[in-house]
Amino acid sequence: MDPPSANQPPGRHRATRAADSDPLGLRRRRLLTSRPLRLGVATAFVGALGFVAYTEAQRPTDTAPVSPAAIAERDAAADQAASRSFDRAAATPSPTASPTPAATPTPKKPPAPARVAPVAGLTQAQMDNARAIVQAGAKEKVPRFGLIVAVATAMQESNLYNLASGVVPESQNYPNQGMGYDHDSVGLFQQRSSTGWGAVRDLMRPAFAAQQFYRELLKVPGWEQLSLTVAAQRVQKSAFPDAYAKHEPRATAVVDALLT
User: Which residues pair with residue 134 across a beta bridge?
Assistant: First the structure.
């Protein structure tokens, strides 16, 4: 050790020399070992650990790659779920919507039979009445000759018009085409309710009156072998038994026109 110089205090010189021999220096050691520094270092270390923990927490736990098949399966499941949700929504009726009642179809009326043009000098009204007579006979399966007998009879009795009676006021309440005055006779065949032919309201219907005539005609034994005038008279019992024969040609033409 060098002796102290005369110009420097002994203690200061030793301290300087001691400091020079320390690698960190006395002041540096004191700074590093001070309490505030230790607290700062500890705080920084704790903060670093917290940052690392936060970063690890934010990192996805599953980092394995997803295969295309898994992606397709996931998308298909999502589509099925969406479809089920849509179906449920469509099946649920709206609370404000009211069902529209089904329209009731209007029943169609059967077409009216075509009218046949008049023949043998008849009017359309007479031809229509003759058609009603022929149609009633067809329902009873009456042969052609019976149809001719019936039409000829109506030609003689009422000229093929549906007549009411001036003697029977009730008959005038029903559709008619004129007035007759032969006792209480009414309708196409001038049948009398008082002798058992039927009610006035029914006899004023051409179809019913013709049906009654045919039923009595079919009761006559061998009527098909009789002449027209005789067959008609067996049913009508008229005061003029030979009057029906003159109508046979025209009645035949009318029936043939209606049957074609």
Answer: none
Using DSSP's 3-state secondary structure scheme, residue 95 falls into coil
Provide the 10 A C-beta neighbour count for residue 156.
21
Rounded CA gap, 92 and 246, in Å?
A: 82
Whether 164 and 180 have beta carbons less than 8 Å apart is answered as yes
230-258 pLDDT, tens digit per residue, is 999 999 998 888 999 999 999 999 999 99
Range of the domain at 38: 25-54
Q: 187: closest CA among 195, 9, 207?
A: 207
Average pLDDT of 29-54?
51
Euclidean distance between CA atoms 115 and 128, whole angstroms:
7
Burial track 107-133 (b if 16+ CB lie within 10 A, e otherwise): eeeeeeeeebebebebeeebbbbbbbb
Q: Which one is predicted more confidently, 186 or 18? A: 186
Say yes or no: 143 and 242 in one domain.
Answer: yes
Query: Which residues are CB-neighbours of 179 under 8 A, at least 6 positions away?
Result: 163, 164, 165, 166, 172
Per the structure block, which two tokens stand in for 95?
A: 């609370």
128 shares a domain with 35: no
Last residue of a domain, one of 54, 71, 95: 54
Contact 183, 167 (CB under 8 A): yes
From CA 187, how far away is CA 206, in angstroms rounded? 7
- Residue 10 in any domain: the answer is no
The CA radius of gyration of the chain, in Å to the nearest whole number, is: 64
Q: How far apart are CA 172 and CA 90, in angstroms?
A: 67
Query: How far apart are alpha carbons 167 and 173 in whole angstroms?
Result: 13
Counting the structural domains of the chain, the total is 2
Average pLDDT over residues 160-181: 97
